[in-house]
Amino acid sequence: MSKIVVKFGGTSVANTERIINAAKLIKQKIDEGHTIAVVVSAMAGVTNDLIKKSKEIDQEFNAEEYDALLASGEQVTSTLFAGALRKLAIKSRSFQSWQLPIVTEGSHKNSRIVYVETSKLNASLDKGEVPVIPGFQGVTKDFRLSTLGRGGSDASAVALAKCINADYCEIYTDVEGVYTTNPDINPKAKKIDKISYEEMLEMATLGAKVMQSNSVQQAMMNDVEIHVRSTFSNKEGTQITNDQKISYDKVITGVAYSKDDAKITLQGVEDRPGIAASIFQPLYENNISVDMIVQNISSDHKKTDVTFTIKREDLKKSVELIKNNKEIKCEKIDYDDKVSKVSIVGAGMITHPGVAYKMFNSLAKEKINIMVISTSEIKISVLINEEQIQKAVAAIHSAFDLD
Ligand code: ASP
Ligand code: MG
């Protein structure tokens, strides 16, 4: 018999009928003898709606009140869920984050869990109850409510699983698991049975929407095994686990892409020590994250070109910051907001040579131009024109036998 933290995403608890169905799923597990704690998201659409309302009041709505407002979404679901379990004659109660407490640090809207007091939770589990905890939130040391960033209820589930020493964490969502790529753009995508934390982290960071990347990172650091599966089917989902439990028969595990990138090139920048730091300092000070970076070796030792990518929403601000930056002189600033990053991820590439060649060759055959390349131990990313994403993903997916 296992101790499991079961998390339901927004679509799985979108209305009372679905909450009742999800509660039945929990009843089955209890009847099988498992010990369960439940974490819930807000009902689908609720968080977006609350954000919209806050903006109707004030575009720059106060961050503390924003968190208290958004936290209410999950609070509603937690009480309805506990009620649904009680209706099925399962002992249950909701625990709000301040009642435990779940303590967070960091800025509002983007906090992280640093501590979960588990005495009440464990007492509840020992009594044979199913505690239901609202995801996505906690309290600060000053007893203000905080939230963990969009999609943050995954992180709540992982943190709880770690703190109550669960055997694993089950994430119920509206897809059957993690796919080799997004099935919406490539019908040949296949469900992955097992994926390592590292690979999943890359996939999540690179654009796979199934799990929030922070939560995967937490799972990896604490070795909390995750099972992702659908509330709407009985099929086995995807297991996210440590790589000792996986045998790699494929070189590549998945193909991910992002659609919201932009690229900036500084042409003819001086080539001297400190120049790269001067370019990126104001971006960092304005909280703009830079992703891919390439700098050419200058042929004349005087001037070089620097290209980097950022989120598309940060393009305007970044260009301004660079134009106003007195520390750097360059001949021309070029930018493009119609670019996308396509990446292959797989621990198998560590031991297989020729992976980069195979990827580039499959793109070449489709006449897709590569603008920027970046690599890590288990990932190769290329920047291409966004109109070619679908073609690129399909080509790579077949080249690596994932179809
Ligand atoms: N309700 C929050 C959101 O929509 C958190 C979550 O669902 O994980 O971002
Ligand atoms: Mg969600």
Summarize the structure.
This protein has helices at residues 16-31, 46-57, 63-87, 119-126, 153-163, 197-205, 213-222, 275-285, 315-323, 355-365, 389-399; strands at 3-8, 35-40, 92-94, 102-105, 112-116, 130-134, 137-139, 145-147, 168-173, 194-196, 226-230, 238-241, 254-270, 290-295, 303-311, 332-345, 372-376, 379-385.
Which terms would index this structure?
2 domains; 18 strands; VC0802-like; Carbamate kinase; binds aspartic acid; six-stranded antiparallel beta sheet; 33% helix; alpha/beta; binds magnesium ion; 11 helices; 403 residues
How would you sum up this structure, described in words?
- The chain has two domains: 3-174, Acetylglutamate kinase-like (Carbamate kinase, 3-Layer(aba) Sandwich), CATH 3.40.1160; 255-399, VC0802-like (2-Layer Sandwich).
- The strands form four sheets. The protein has an eight-stranded mixed β-sheet with strand order 3-6-2-1-9-11-12-10, sandwiched between helices. A six-stranded antiparallel β-sheet has the order 14-15-13-16-18-17.
- It has 403 residues and is α/β, with parallel strands linked by helices.
- The protein is built from eleven helices and 18 strands.
- Helix 6 runs antiparallel to helix 7 (213-222).
- Helix content is 33%, strand content 28%.
- Bound molecules: aspartic acid and magnesium ion.
Question: What does the secondary structure layout of this molecule look like, with pairings?
Answer:
Elements: E1 3-8, H1 16-31, E2 35-40, H2 46-57, H3 63-87, E3 92-94, E4 102-105, E5 112-116, H4 119-126, E6 130-134, E7 137-139, E8 145-147, H5 153-163, E9 168-173, E10 194-196, H6 197-205, H7 213-222, E11 226-230, E12 238-241, E13 254-270, H8 275-285, E14 290-295, E15 303-311, H9 315-323, E16 332-345, H10 355-365, E17 372-376, E18 379-385, H11 389-399
Parallel strand pairs: 1-2, 1-9, 2-6, 3-6, 9-11, 10-12
Antiparallel strand pairs: 4-5, 7-8, 11-12, 13-15, 13-16, 14-15, 16-18, 17-18
Helix pairs in contact: 1-3, 2-3, 5-7, 6-7, 10-11
Bound molecules: aspartic acid and magnesium ion.
